[in-house]
Each structure stands twice: as C-alpha cells, then as structure tokens.
Design goal:
Elements (H helix, E strand, L loop, with lengths): L2 H19 L6 E5 L3 H13 L3 E5 L2 H7 L5 E4 L8 H11 L4 E5 L4 H9 L4 E4 L4 H21 L2 E4 L2 E4 L4 E4 L2 E3 L3 H11 L6 E2 H9 L5 H15 L5 E4 L3 E4 L3
Parallel strand pairs: 1-2, 1-3, 3-4, 4-5
Antiparallel strand pairs: 6-7, 7-8, 8-9, 10-12, 11-12
Helix pairs in contact: 3-4, 7-8, 7-9
C-alpha cells in the first residue's frame, strides 16, 4: 500500500472515531444493574455523552421507573426478580427501547433475551463505544414510536409522560406520582384491560393490596370528575375509558 493510501486510510479512521465520540441526542436512560460498580461506571459514561441517567438495582424498581425513560439498559441477573420476566413485563405494556446488558453469553441466553422482548443483546464485558453504537441503532428504529408514546391525549384529557403532567380541558390536574403512573399505564393502552397483577407490578413493584389500588383509582376518578375515565372490569382489573 502506498504512503498516500495509508495516510488516507488513517484520516478516514480518525474521522469515524470522531463520529463515534460525538454525543448522541440526549436521552433519559434507565440503567438496571445489580452490580453497583458497573452501574456507576456506566452511568458516568452515559452522562459524559449528555444523557440523563437513572440507576436502579432491582427488577421491582425497574418496573416502576421504565415509563419515564427513553431507553432501558437491563441487566438480566437481578436479586429479586427473573430478568427475563422483567423484560417480558415491560414489553407486554410498553414499546420502550430495551437492550439486555448481561454476563449471560450463550446462544440460548441471547435467544431467550430477544424472545422476551429485548431489542438488542450485549454481553459483558463490552466496549462502551459498541454500547453507544447499539443504543443509537435501537433508538433510530424506535424513535417514531417512542416520540408519539410520550403524550397520550383523549378528548379533553392530556397526559404528558415527559413532564409528568395531567391536564383536563386545559386545566392542570394535580396527581401524586403513583396516581400518574396508574393513569398513564391505563391511558397508554386504550381498550386494553390491565389486570390488577400487572398494575401491581408496574406501579407498586409487587408490593400492594387491593385496597391500595382501589383507593388510587377512586382518587383519580374524583380528580378527573367522573368514573368514566377508568372503567372497572369485575374480576379482572381496569381499562381506560372515554368521556
């Protein structure tokens, strides 16, 4: 290879490296990681690239936090719940982009992770630039869905997941964190009956009672001015209604 060709190749590689280092658009990243050291390292790298990071160490916490995230990085080795079940639970109720980041590296592990709903699968140890490239690729594919899913509007009711604000007829409705999570969960799946078990997992992370769910539903109905927004399906759960 001539010296000119070698120089040209080196310049091309430098240009590609610069593109890899360039920060992506800012995303809200949920890091679900059992190892605190790994979490701290990953979170620091993501923040250097301009992203907002929330870190949790359990599957229960992940099920409560994913709804306000743009992308989830999910360790499948969790102390409280099966990581694959956490992945399935999130995917059954949301299209949020999700990458499994785990030490489980066999072909069967990858197949099970992808079948559980992961958009991509990355085995530890991995290079940070590879992770960023995979996140970029997943977000490019998912961006149309993830953008539209941030705001749910139904007639006079508007629910914004980004700002966690609810408004009715243009007037703000003050709701608690759990009330917002419950309302957004139902509204994001119009016409779908959400079981009490799923509400338990998504909103309360598995710690719940029937009275707790009913109390929050009753409070939301009062704040929204009627029971038609949240319809009880006896023996099953609830679904989002229209007024």
């Amino acid at each position: 290879m001539s010296q000119g060709a070698t120089s040209s190749t080196l310049e091309a590689r430098k240009s590609l490296a610069a593109q890899i280092r360039r920060p992506s658009a800012s995303w809200r990243v949920l890091v679900v990681e059992n190892d605190q050291s790994d979490m701290d390292t990953l979170a620091a790298g993501l923040r250097r690239h301009g992203h907002q990071v929330e870190g949790v160490g359990t599957g229960s916490a992940a099920l409560q936090a994913y709804q306000v995230s743009d992308i989830v990085l999910l360790d499948l080795e969790l102390p409280d719940l099966d990581g694959l079940e956490v992945c399935r639970s999130i995917r059954s109720l949301s299209d949020v982009p999700l990458i499994a980041v785990t030490g489980w590296g066999t072909e069967l592990d990858r197949v099970l992770g992808l079948q559980a709903g992961a958009d991509d699968y990355l085995v530890k140890p991995y290079g940070f630039r590879e992770l960023m490239a995979r996140m970029d690729a997943v977000m490019r594919r998912a961006r149309p869905q993830s953008v539209t899913a941030r705001v749910v509007s139904c007639g006079p009711l508007r629910i914004d997941a980004s700002s966690r604000e609810v408004s009715l007829h243009g007037e703000a409705v003050e709701v608690t964190r759990k009330e917002f999570d419950l309302l957004f969960l139902l509204a994001a799946h119009p016409g779908t009956v959400i079981t009490r078990k799923r509400i338990m997992q998504q909103v309360w992370g598995g710690s719940w009672s029937r009275r707790t769910v009913d109390t929050h539903v009753s409070s939301l109905r009062g704040k929204l001015g009627g029971s038609d927004w949240i319809v009880t399906v006896r023996g099953v759960g609830f679904r989002f209604g229209t007024v």
